[in-house]
Design brief:
mainly alpha; 8 helices
Protein backbone atom coordinates (compact mmCIF):
# COMPACT_ATOMS: atom_id res chain seq x y z
CA UNK A 1 0.00 0.00 0.00
CA UNK A 2 2.84 2.31 0.91
CA UNK A 3 4.48 1.62 -2.45
CA UNK A 4 1.25 2.42 -4.24
CA UNK A 5 1.07 5.79 -2.47
CA UNK A 6 4.64 6.59 -3.47
CA UNK A 7 3.92 5.69 -7.08
CA UNK A 8 0.76 7.79 -7.07
CA UNK A 9 2.60 10.83 -5.69
CA UNK A 10 5.37 10.43 -8.24
CA UNK A 11 2.85 10.19 -11.05
CA UNK A 12 1.02 13.32 -9.90
CA UNK A 13 4.31 15.20 -9.60
CA UNK A 14 5.33 14.18 -13.11
CA UNK A 15 1.93 15.19 -14.42
CA UNK A 16 2.19 18.57 -12.67
CA UNK A 17 5.65 19.21 -14.10
CA UNK A 18 4.48 18.24 -17.59
CA UNK A 19 1.46 20.51 -17.24
CA UNK A 20 3.62 23.46 -16.14
CA UNK A 21 5.99 22.90 -19.05
CA UNK A 22 3.12 22.77 -21.51
CA UNK A 23 1.61 25.95 -20.07
CA UNK A 24 4.96 27.75 -20.24
CA UNK A 25 5.38 26.68 -23.86
CA UNK A 26 1.86 27.81 -24.77
CA UNK A 27 2.47 31.23 -23.18
CA UNK A 28 5.80 31.52 -24.98
CA UNK A 29 4.16 30.73 -28.31
CA UNK A 30 1.48 33.36 -27.62
CA UNK A 31 4.17 35.96 -26.90
CA UNK A 32 5.86 35.13 -30.19
CA UNK A 33 2.51 35.47 -31.98
CA UNK A 34 1.84 38.83 -30.31
CA UNK A 35 5.29 40.10 -31.26
CA UNK A 36 4.99 39.03 -34.90
CA UNK A 37 1.48 40.52 -35.15
CA UNK A 38 2.65 43.82 -33.64
CA UNK A 39 5.59 44.14 -36.04
CA UNK A 40 3.31 43.36 -38.99
CA UNK A 41 0.84 46.04 -37.84
CA UNK A 42 3.66 48.60 -37.63
CA UNK A 43 4.89 47.60 -41.07
CA UNK A 44 1.40 48.11 -42.50
CA UNK A 45 1.07 51.66 -41.18
CA UNK A 46 1.40 54.60 -43.51
CA UNK A 47 5.00 55.90 -43.44
CA UNK A 48 3.94 59.36 -42.26
CA UNK A 49 1.80 57.86 -39.50
CA UNK A 50 4.71 55.70 -38.34
CA UNK A 51 7.01 58.71 -38.19
CA UNK A 52 4.48 60.83 -36.31
CA UNK A 53 3.88 58.14 -33.67
CA UNK A 54 7.34 56.63 -33.51
CA UNK A 55 8.03 57.31 -29.81
CA UNK A 56 4.94 55.37 -28.77
CA UNK A 57 5.64 52.59 -31.28
CA UNK A 58 9.22 52.21 -30.08
CA UNK A 59 8.11 52.01 -26.45
CA UNK A 60 5.53 49.32 -27.25
CA UNK A 61 8.09 47.45 -29.35
CA UNK A 62 10.62 47.24 -26.52
CA UNK A 63 8.02 45.65 -24.25
CA UNK A 64 6.94 43.09 -26.84
CA UNK A 65 10.51 42.36 -27.94
CA UNK A 66 11.51 41.61 -24.33
CA UNK A 67 8.60 39.16 -24.00
CA UNK A 68 9.51 37.56 -27.33
CA UNK A 69 13.16 37.14 -26.32
CA UNK A 70 12.06 35.41 -23.12
CA UNK A 71 9.76 33.21 -25.17
CA UNK A 72 12.66 32.19 -27.41
CA UNK A 73 14.52 30.90 -24.34
CA UNK A 74 11.51 28.78 -23.31
CA UNK A 75 10.98 27.40 -26.82
CA UNK A 76 14.66 26.59 -27.16
CA UNK A 77 15.34 24.71 -30.38
CA UNK A 78 11.99 25.47 -31.99
CA UNK A 79 13.31 26.38 -35.46
CA UNK A 80 9.97 27.67 -36.70
CA UNK A 81 9.61 30.12 -33.81
CA UNK A 82 13.22 31.27 -34.24
CA UNK A 83 12.66 31.87 -37.94
CA UNK A 84 9.50 33.91 -37.26
CA UNK A 85 11.32 36.03 -34.67
CA UNK A 86 14.27 36.67 -36.97
CA UNK A 87 11.98 37.70 -39.82
CA UNK A 88 10.08 40.11 -37.59
CA UNK A 89 13.31 41.55 -36.17
CA UNK A 90 14.58 42.28 -39.67
CA UNK A 91 11.23 43.73 -40.73
CA UNK A 92 11.15 46.06 -37.71
CA UNK A 93 14.73 47.23 -38.25
CA UNK A 94 13.72 48.26 -41.77
CA UNK A 95 10.68 50.32 -40.77
CA UNK A 96 12.62 51.81 -37.86
CA UNK A 97 15.34 53.12 -40.16
CA UNK A 98 12.72 54.57 -42.53
CA UNK A 99 10.71 56.22 -39.74
CA UNK A 100 13.77 57.77 -38.10
CA UNK A 101 15.04 59.07 -41.43
CA UNK A 102 11.67 60.66 -42.20
CA UNK A 103 11.39 62.18 -38.72
CA UNK A 104 14.91 63.63 -38.97
CA UNK A 105 14.23 65.05 -42.43
CA UNK A 106 11.05 66.68 -41.14
CA UNK A 107 12.80 68.15 -38.11
CA UNK A 108 15.70 69.42 -40.22
CA UNK A 109 13.31 71.02 -42.68
CA UNK A 110 11.37 72.71 -39.90
CA UNK A 111 14.54 74.03 -38.31
CA UNK A 112 15.94 75.25 -41.63
CA UNK A 113 12.71 76.97 -42.59
CA UNK A 114 12.69 78.94 -39.34
CA UNK A 115 16.32 80.05 -39.38
CA UNK A 116 18.17 82.30 -41.77
CA UNK A 117 21.13 84.01 -40.12
CA UNK A 118 19.87 83.76 -36.57
CA UNK A 119 17.37 81.37 -35.08
CA UNK A 120 14.82 84.02 -34.19
CA UNK A 121 12.55 84.08 -31.14
CA UNK A 122 12.78 80.48 -29.95
CA UNK A 123 16.51 80.20 -30.63
CA UNK A 124 17.11 83.53 -28.87
CA UNK A 125 15.53 82.19 -25.68
CA UNK A 126 17.54 78.97 -25.78
CA UNK A 127 20.93 80.33 -26.86
CA UNK A 128 20.77 84.08 -26.18
CA UNK A 129 19.68 87.12 -28.23
CA UNK A 130 21.08 87.13 -31.75
CA UNK A 131 22.58 83.65 -31.46
CA UNK A 132 23.75 82.50 -34.87
CA UNK A 133 22.09 79.19 -35.64
CA UNK A 134 22.06 79.25 -39.43
CA UNK A 135 20.63 76.75 -41.89
CA UNK A 136 23.65 74.49 -41.43
CA UNK A 137 23.33 74.65 -37.61
CA UNK A 138 27.12 74.45 -37.33
CA UNK A 139 27.27 76.43 -34.04
CA UNK A 140 30.74 77.64 -35.01
CA UNK A 141 30.60 80.29 -32.27
CA UNK A 142 30.47 77.59 -29.59
CA UNK A 143 33.94 76.80 -28.22
CA UNK A 144 35.64 75.07 -25.29
CA UNK A 145 35.31 78.20 -23.15
CA UNK A 146 31.59 78.88 -23.60
CA UNK A 147 30.04 75.49 -24.40
CA UNK A 148 29.15 74.70 -20.79
CA UNK A 149 27.26 77.98 -20.44
CA UNK A 150 25.48 77.28 -23.75
CA UNK A 151 24.27 73.90 -22.52
CA UNK A 152 23.36 75.38 -19.14
CA UNK A 153 21.21 78.12 -20.68
CA UNK A 154 19.65 75.69 -23.14
CA UNK A 155 18.66 73.25 -20.38
CA UNK A 156 17.45 75.86 -17.88
CA UNK A 157 15.35 77.63 -20.53
CA UNK A 158 13.83 74.37 -21.72
CA UNK A 159 13.10 73.22 -18.17
CA UNK A 160 11.42 76.50 -17.28
CA UNK A 161 9.22 76.60 -20.40
CA UNK A 162 8.76 72.92 -21.30
CA UNK A 163 5.00 72.94 -20.67
CA UNK A 164 4.49 75.77 -23.16
CA UNK A 165 6.28 74.30 -26.19
CA UNK A 166 4.25 73.08 -29.15
CA UNK A 167 5.05 69.97 -31.15
CA UNK A 168 6.67 72.17 -33.80
CA UNK A 169 8.79 73.92 -31.16
CA UNK A 170 9.96 70.57 -29.84
CA UNK A 171 10.96 69.47 -33.34
CA UNK A 172 13.16 72.56 -33.63
CA UNK A 173 14.61 72.05 -30.16
CA UNK A 174 15.48 68.45 -31.02
CA UNK A 175 17.27 69.47 -34.21
CA UNK A 176 19.23 72.22 -32.44
CA UNK A 177 20.12 69.98 -29.53
CA UNK A 178 21.49 67.28 -31.85
CA UNK A 179 23.46 69.92 -33.77
CA UNK A 180 24.89 71.28 -30.50
CA UNK A 181 25.92 67.73 -29.56
CA UNK A 182 27.71 67.41 -32.90
CA UNK A 183 29.55 70.66 -32.19
CA UNK A 184 30.49 69.30 -28.75
CA UNK A 185 32.27 66.36 -30.39
CA UNK A 186 34.50 68.87 -32.20
CA UNK A 187 35.04 71.04 -29.12
CA UNK A 188 36.15 68.02 -27.10
CA UNK A 189 39.11 67.67 -29.46
CA UNK A 190 39.92 71.37 -29.08
CA UNK A 191 40.63 71.20 -25.36
CA UNK A 192 37.31 70.98 -23.52
CA UNK A 193 38.15 70.42 -19.86
CA UNK A 194 37.11 67.16 -18.19
CA UNK A 195 35.34 69.19 -15.51
CA UNK A 196 33.16 71.05 -18.03
CA UNK A 197 32.60 67.86 -19.98
CA UNK A 198 31.33 66.13 -16.83
CA UNK A 199 28.95 68.99 -16.03
CA UNK A 200 27.61 68.90 -19.60
CA UNK A 201 27.03 65.15 -19.26
CA UNK A 202 24.98 65.79 -16.10
CA UNK A 203 22.85 68.36 -17.92
CA UNK A 204 22.27 65.93 -20.78
CA UNK A 205 21.15 63.22 -18.35
CA UNK A 206 18.56 65.59 -16.86
CA UNK A 207 17.41 66.90 -20.24
CA UNK A 208 16.85 63.59 -22.07
CA UNK A 209 13.93 62.13 -20.05
CA UNK A 210 12.19 65.49 -19.74
CA UNK A 211 12.39 66.12 -23.47
CA UNK A 212 11.17 62.60 -24.29
CA UNK A 213 8.16 63.08 -22.02
CA UNK A 214 7.28 66.44 -23.54
CA UNK A 215 7.42 64.98 -27.06
CA UNK A 216 5.08 62.15 -26.09
CA UNK A 217 2.55 64.37 -24.33
CA UNK A 218 2.66 67.03 -27.06
CA UNK A 219 1.74 64.43 -29.66
CA UNK A 220 -1.11 63.19 -27.49
CA UNK A 221 -2.46 66.70 -27.05
CA UNK A 222 -2.15 67.31 -30.78
CA UNK A 223 -4.23 64.19 -31.49
CA UNK A 224 -6.86 65.25 -28.93
CA UNK A 225 -7.13 68.68 -30.51
CA UNK A 226 -7.54 67.10 -33.95
CA UNK A 227 -10.34 64.86 -32.67
CA UNK A 228 -12.14 67.81 -31.07
CA UNK A 229 -11.85 69.82 -34.27
CA UNK A 230 -13.24 66.89 -36.27
CA UNK A 231 -16.24 66.67 -33.97
Amino acid sequence: MKNLNVIAVAALTALSITSCKNEAKENAEKNVDHYVTFVDSVNNLDAAERAANWDAIASEYEMRRTAADSAAVVLGSDDKATERLNESNAKYDGVKAAAEAEAKAKADAAASASTATTGGGLADTLFGPGAVVGNDMAFAWVNKDNILSVYQKFYETFDANKDAYSRQDLDKIKAWYEALDTRKNTVEKEGLSSSDNGKIASLKLKFAPKFKWERLTAKGEENDDAKKAAN
